[in-house]
């Protein structure tokens, strides 16, 4: 449990908020104490979902159903309010640790414990299914361990949230690595899907490993659909039943009743002594900490909380105060040109120097974008240092990783080892991103990522300063469903991980009630895409959505035009690169793209930035420069209020995700729990006359 943030309520209805248990895309989970002194977990739904009347109706319906779940191993819904400003539901708080944290701390569970775990979770799922629900997110983090047995949590609003998520983002509800094949494919699911997920959970519990490995989200989903699970280390006594649970064919999996019967004897014999001693000790320690929580204070709902400030609370308060001060004066102070970028200010004990790292592709395939990010960051540093009212100076340590995994890891190790660098901004390719993160994670140094949108690398230090790739599809779905198409929508996958994720989400979002969708595969690097283009044109498409990146999109666009197709053509951020214009030639004209990168020369409100950039570099800012500028503006706001003389990267990682910043390109704000970008920030471009024309953040009136 962590202390509440300044934005958390002091009360939720009659429950006094004591702390924060977690946060995610759907909402925040708070620890509360009721009038009777009992502890509860309160899930508070995010305002953007609360604003949807259809969601409230679904939420109300699913809470009503969830109240009917009766099992000693399923944590019940005991209170809820679907009509509150922020809808919420409450369940009894279980002080035991989650299964994933337990395995990470004490190691895999013995076979006997896993048999009991399987039997009792199967009983909990039987109650969930009996109430007409499917859990949809059975994973180790949703299994809490208590001395008398496990507790399954987070089933109360699964179906209500599923419809909202699919409609809003085209995403798939659940946790990759534990999803059934039918979930990974975006199909409708039933109780058998929970059985598959339970099999994954039990395999993890007994081996400490995920049966479909680790890695990018796209890879995990692909393996769930196509690969056999890795059950290395699973005892022979458990293996046959787990193999059946993990069958690709849902009809071949056992029912939860069959699982309960198979492991019932072990369950009956275990009693309360079902866990090994180290786990019992872990549960006891956590329970003891909960007993030290303060009682309900004699205040009314809405009264401000009073508590002794911890170091983390002091950091949060300082960052919040800094944000409030900076909000009144704009992103950064404007001053005269001429200060060297990153120059060390004259020695002044009142103005210490704080160093930020920039790791970017400055000489590889994304060098144009990397250089633009760099220049935007340099301008932000120069403007910060030119203002003598700032309590600290900024320096920028710039490192080129050329977009390769090998160089990215080497650069990351150097920046991670440099104690003077308190945070790192990254702007590089997808292969490099996967390689650079481990060194930063190891030392807990915060990373603000400008280019990664795959959500494949979520961890404790990685904060993503742009909307995830799947969210690019939200305005595209709006556009494609605004009216009937003249023919089917052909969705083209170039087989790269980025394209696979884009096209999978597109098919999921448009699968119900949208246009007819035809899936086509045109592998990137195919020597002659003309045959594939002719095949696509033969469908007489109402529109074509290309999911790949610019390297393959250029030849494909030329081949599609040669095949005679002139209808609506759509692409996403992977194509927003001058290289696409070069490769496609005249065939690029007419393509409509979404991108999370703004064009400061056309974006409203960017005039002051354009003027300052042009004065500083003797040329107007290219795309990506505003995002680099905003990244340093965010970090300057995050650092203001902390003690720069004693500042470390561990202080910054505590407050970065809690800092928001109105930048030139977009408003930057993040999920505290996972570092994902929150809010809007997707823009439309149309290629006209061989150039990208900025259309703004609203879908055009017509394709």
Describe this structure as you would to a colleague:
- InterPro entries: Kinase-like_dom_sf (IPR011009), Leu-bd (IPR028081), Peripla_BP_I (IPR028082), Prot_kinase_dom (IPR000719), Protein_kinase_ATP_BS (IPR017441), Ser/Thr_kinase_AS (IPR008271).
- Belongs to the leucine-binding protein family.
- With about 700 residues, the protein is of the alpha/beta class.
- It folds into three domains: about 95-290, Transferase(Phosphotransferase) domain 1 (Transferase(Phosphotransferase), domain 1); about 320-465 and about 605-670, Response regulator (Rossmann fold, 3-Layer(aba) Sandwich), CATH 3.40.50.2300; about 470-595 and about 685-695, Rossmann fold.
- Strands 15-14-16-17-18-21-22 form a seven-stranded mixed beta sheet, with helices on one face. It has a six-stranded antiparallel beta sheet with strand order 1-2-3-4-6-5. Strands 10-9-11-12-13 form a five-stranded parallel beta sheet, sandwiched between helices.
- The model is unreliable at about 160-175 and about 300-345 (pLDDT under 50).
**Gyration radius, rounded:** 26 Å
Structural class comes to: alpha/beta
Total discrete domains: 3
Average pLDDT value?
84
What proportion of the residues is helical, as a percent range?
25-40%
CATH fold node name of the largest domain: Rossmann fold
Tally of DSSP β-strands: 22
Count up the helices. Answer: 23
Labels describing this entry:
single chain, 703 residues, alpha/beta, Transferase(Phosphotransferase), domain 1, Rossmann fold, 3 domains, seven-stranded mixed β-sheet, six-stranded antiparallel β-sheet, 23 helices, 22 strands, globular, Leu-bd, ATP-binding, kinase activity, Kinase-like_dom_sf, Bifunctional serine/threonine-protein kinase/ABC transporter substrate-binding protein
